[in-house]
């Protein structure tokens, strides 16, 4: 099953919440990033003219996902960009989780992009990452 996400309309009224799933940590990170990306702007309206590589490590996979999603929000604000896609690769090495990812997007341009919500941050409210067999799931609330 491919990685997927769905927005959770009944979890956070003033913020945005979503549940992301994947058959691997990489697919989970991709689905969660795509949910953040689609909260910010319609990725179909964002060109692929900007690119950034991100590398992070953590002993805890939930903390690594939280940092990854927070980095997307930070880069959006610091660089003034929105995103078309994220390509994360997550693997475990010597007891630590490692993320190597690429963000692809373009500088914000309201004339050509369908901008949606301005996400302020990722919250720990109801934040959860769990594994059920081979399926990974995360629930995330974004501060808007």
How are the SSEs placed, and which strands pair?
Elements (H helix, E strand, L loop, with lengths): L3 E4 L8 E7 L2 H16 L9 E9 L2 H19 L1 E13 L2 E12 L13 E12 L2 E9 L1
Antiparallel strand pairs: 1-2, 2-7, 3-5, 4-5, 6-7
Helix pairs in contact: 1-2
State the helicity in percent bands: 10-25%
Largest sheet, in brief, is:
4 strands, antiparallel
Q: Which strand order spans the largest sheet, edge to edge or round the barrel?
A: 1-2-7-6
Number of helices: 2
Describe the structure concisely.
With 144 residues, the chain is an alpha+beta fold. 24% of the residues lie in helices and 46% in strands. The chain has 2 helices and 7 strands; from the N terminus they run ββαβαββββ.
Structure description:
The mean pLDDT is 94. The chain has 2 helices and 7 strands. The protein has 144 residues and is an alpha+beta fold. The strands form 2 sheets. Strands 1-2-7-6 form a 4-stranded antiparallel beta sheet, covered by helices on one side. A 3-stranded antiparallel beta sheet has the order 3-5-4.
């Amino acid at each position: 099953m491919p990685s997927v996400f769905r927005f959770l309309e009944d979890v956070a009224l003033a913020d945005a919440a979503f549940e992301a799933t994947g058959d691997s940590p990489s697919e989970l990170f991709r689905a969660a990033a795509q949910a953040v990306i689609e909260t910010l702007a319609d990725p179909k309206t964002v060109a692929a003219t900007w690119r950034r590589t991100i590398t992070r490590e953590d002993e805890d996979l939930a903390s690594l996902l939280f940092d990854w999603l927070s980095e997307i929000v930070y880069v959006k604000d610091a660089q003034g960009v929105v995103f078309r896609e994220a390509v994360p690769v997550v693997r475990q090495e010597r007891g630590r989780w490692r993320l190597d990812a690429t963000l692809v997007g373009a500088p914000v341009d309201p004339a050509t992009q369908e901008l949606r919500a301005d996400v302020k941050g990722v919250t720990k409210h109801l934040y959860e990452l769990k594994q059920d067999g081979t399926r990974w799931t995360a629930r995330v609330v974004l501060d808007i």
